[in-house]
Amino acid sequence: MVKAVVAGAAGGIGQPLSLLLKLNPLITELSLYDVVNSPGVAVDLSHINTPAQVKGFLPENNGAEEALKGADIVVIPAGVPRKPGMTRDDLFVNAGICATLAQAIANAAPKAFILVISNPVNSTVPVFAEVLKKSGAYDPKRLFGVTTLDVVRAATFVSSVVGKPLDAPKYNVPVVGGHSGATILPLLTQSEPQIPAAILNDQAKRDALIKRIQFGGDEVVEAKNGGGSATLSMAQAGAHFANLVIQAAFAGKTTVVQSYIDLEAAPGGKGVQKEIGSDLAYFSVNVELGRDGVQNILPIGNIDDQEKTLLAAAVKELGPSIEKGVQFTPAPP
Ligand code: NAI
After folding, report:
1. pTM for this entry
2. Which keywords fit this entry according to its UniProt record (predicted)?
């Protein structure tokens, strides 16, 4: 019996994400919260003959907390997406929305796994942590910034450059760091299957591949031409990540994924801080998922000199974004 909640469920990501969660047979209860349209989305999805019982909630009558009561996992794509020319940092307006949702989770579902999709993830995850800390409801093992779309894109783009696009599902290219531009660090040298040396040693090809993974989101923003950012691919990535968290917590299936987390969540975080040469509090790392969420933080591992240079750039850019999230003061309710 797993209860999942989507906050921002009527949006571009929220609707397909809710659909994919409705199709997950492990979910028995699905609550959809949004400031608009969530009851309609809920009734629509409720006709699908899968186990999850779907209900929609609006802010009226304390709707957020009603939706969240008893939640095991909350997935959050609430907020404004990018328009052409905007960076994810321009979305810091979403910090207020995140703080409000964090408070509602602290009040109604303090033990839930929290999966943050709302951008800028590099800052919104610290915003969640700070609000939860103030309510005494913070468990760093249970808070995740969803960077799965970067990992999904890396597999797709790498398989294409290697000339094996049909093998995209077989590729596993770890992506660490953060979730915007230069903070996104794809570890091409750790790709499985390996990327042929002829490609890795071709500087122009390698640079183009890294840039495409780092700025893949811009391709979508530009193609949608004012109509928003990635929604369908993000919904798939978010539902996949949610499923892995659920499988680890409720079906005993441990996996290793990358996610942007508090490095204090598990002892391995100190080792990562040594590897990155910084005491950054948050980083997207290799996370072993278990019953309580983050079970173990694994090392980044061997990287080459070019990746070390990119790592230094990622660390430099992440610091201020984390600080911005930590320092954010929500408006009084
Ligand atoms: P959207 O505008 O289509 O949907 C956002 C939804 O949030 C809307 O339905 C809106 O009514 C709702 N909302 C606004 N304030 C709310 C509140 N206080 N409580 C609950 N719901 C609220 O936007 P879209 O395209 O779905 O993107 C959502 C967020 O996800 C954006 O911040 C976007 O940048 C981010 N994103 C993150 C990605 C990642 O890899 N982590 C990838 C793509 C987008």
Report:
1. 0.97
2. NAD, Oxidoreductase, Tricarboxylic acid cycle
